[in-house]
Design a protein that fits this description.
With about 400 residues, the chain is α/β, with parallel strands linked by helices. It has 17 helices and 11 strands. The strands form 2 sheets. A 6-stranded mixed sheet has the order 1-6-5-2-3-4, with helices on both faces. A 5-stranded mixed sheet has the order 7-11-10-8-9, with no helix packed on it. The longest helix is centred in the middle third of the chain and has 17 residues.
Length: about 400
């Protein structure tokens, strides 16, 4: 299938950081045969966020051109540390946790990728048959010097920080996945460059055509500084309720508006260039662009009515500072035995997950009470809990509300 220049540019440049080797990938793309597109995931967590969606959108584009997506569930590597730029290894999971996380992940994965044109495989299909001889054969194809080229390993070695042998195995196992399915292309973030390259080398040593490495840009989180991550609480989850998704996108710094449009929507490139010019010249209100961005992304994972309702709620609650009409009601009687302080009451009310989170939010002035009559007041310290007047509303953080009764 021959692509015209505009289609080729959309596939190989938009939302792409690097392709190794670009010329070889284009030749494969123009060859007319269906390519085997590999994406693997370790189900160490049950949820995915917009940072993952950047790559999933590229998979969907290639699916629409007739190529085959093969999703590898890393039920073995989920139990091995992979720092990928971090200094701590991942926790070991039970088989039951892996299955539960994978099921949740797949539901979200197929919000973007067409399930009817994707194949899901589990690593245990091949690693379940691995012997010690297979492991020795695998490790014998690489040198320690090759692995110390990985920036994270080199840095930790220089800092005399420990590197577990299991961590060195992770890239080899990920690489063997490519051999097992005979991948033509593997997708990953720029932090996966080393691992994807090891896959190329292993395929070559096994007599296969080396896979192409399709590297996605890292999406900056809602804090505008660091990579989107659940552990940093700067993420937008694809399974979040519409109002939460919309509100988080509206909290983005203005500098992220165009990158998010670029990586997560189909807005034409010419329009993106115009947005950049207008923002720089201050001839457009960034709030209006963010509303459009939030509506488009929310509708993509929910639907248009849900996105419209989320926008109406944002305008009423955040911009007009009115209380939402659909607040959950918390029984005052149920909080009687919650504990001595407001942080205990907030946990019991289901508004926060821990007492420490409650203390932090209260100290930040992020907990506000709205009595039925009179002005609102912010909690400024985690004082002893005194039951508020029935009908009092409470706001915790930016988007959590409840009414006491």
């Amino acid at each position: 299938m021959s692509l015209n220049p505009a289609e080729l540019q959309r596939i190989t440049e938009r939302g792409v950081s690097e392709i190794i080797v670009r010329e070889e990938f284009i030749d494969l793309l123009q060859s007319g045969r269906s390519l085997r597109l590999k994406m693997g995931f370790d189900p160490s967590r049950p949820d995915i966020h917009l940072g993952h969606v950047v790559g999933l959108r590229k998979l969907r584009q290639l699916q629409d051109l007739g190529h085959q997506v093969i999703l590898i569930v890393g039920d073995w590597t989920a139990q091995i540390g992979d720092p990928s730029g971090r200094s701590a290894t991942r926790p070991i999971l039970t088989h039951e946790e892996v299955i539960a996380n994978a099921e949740s992940y797949l539901l979200q994965f197929f919000k973007v990728v067409d399930e009817t044109r994707a194949q899901v495989v589990w690593q245990s299909e091949w690693f379940g048959k691995f012997s010690l001889a297979d492991i020795i054969d695998l490790t014998g194809r690489f040198t320690v010097a090759q692995f110390l080229q990985r920036a994270d390993y080199a840095q930790r070695l220089a800092e005399q920080s420990p590197i577990a042998l299991t961590e060195l195995l992770y890239p080899l196992l990920q690489a063997y996945d490519s051999v097992a399915i005979e991948a033509d292309v593997e997708f990953g973030g720029t932090d996966q460059l080393f691992n994807l390259g090891i896959g190329r080398e292993l395929q070559r040593s096994k007599g296969q055509r080396p896979q192409q490495c399709f590297l996605m840009p890292i999406l900056v989180g809602t804090d505008g500084v660091q990579k989107m991550s659940k552990s940093l609480d700067n993420y937008v989850g694809v399974a979040e309720p519409p109002e939460e998704m919309y509100g988080k996108i509206m909290s983005l710094p203005d500098a992220l508006i165009v990158p998010y449009f670029d990586y997560l929507t189909d807005a034409p490139a010419e329009e993106l260039a115009g947005m950049s010019r207008d923002i720089a010249a201050e001839t457009v209100n960034p709030m209006n662009l963010k509303k459009r961005l939030a509506a488009e992304i929310t509708a993509a994972f929910h639907d248009q009515p849900a996105a419209a309702a989320a926008q109406e709620r944002f305008e009423r609650v955040v911009q007009q500072r009115a209380l939402p009409e659909d607040m959950p009601v918390v029984s005052l009687a149920a909080l009687a035995e919650a504990g001595p302080r407001w942080s205990n009451a907030l946990v019991a009310a289901g508004l926060i997950s821990s007492v420490s989170e409650g203390k932090r939010l209260i100290n930040q002035g992020a907990v506000e009470l709205f009595p039925p009559a009179g002005p609102s007041r912010r909690l400024t310290e985690d004082s002893h809990y005194q039951p508020p007047e029935p009908g009092t509303a409470i706001k915790v953080g930016r988007r959590r509300f409840a009414s006491f009764n």
